[in-house]
User: What shape does this take?
Amino acid sequence: LLAQQTTVPTETSQAEVVPLAGSSDTTPSANYLETYKVSATHPRLLSIDSLSVKARVFEVGRDGRNQPQLPKNSYDVGWYNVSALPGNQGAVVASGACSGSVGSGVFRRLNELKTGATMSLERGDGSVIAYQVESIETVPADAVNMASVLEVTGRATQGLNLIGCVGSYDVKTNDFSSRVIVFAVRI
Assistant: This one.
């Protein structure tokens, strides 16, 4: 997950946000969630009540490290288009920024999520699918096992796996030192 924005956070605190040249972050309009549309089977909105997250979900591909790209705006979440669709067998994989040029990113507190927490994905057809967190891991950025991230955890057949940045920020590489990966199953 190459950072589209810069900051110098630690794993326990947020630091000053410094805009990166070319960043396309813009503060969303008041009704940006209500007016956002996607095809019926695609993920439209991600909600994580315990983190006060409600975000649009945009389709993304992979970056040069074979990891999900970040969406263009730090308020949004990216659905990795080689992962499952919500409601289908397999794991839906979503990425998000921890910081952005306009402030903190949608996944700024992802490392605070706890096992047992719930979240949901709303599809383009309005149906909502709920998930429960089974496990959370933090790994070095260069040690992310994407085969594992693309799998459903445990014996479940449907899951939602989130990946975000944590740790220290390196200006030279435009990247964070670690990734937090959340594995959840459909409930």
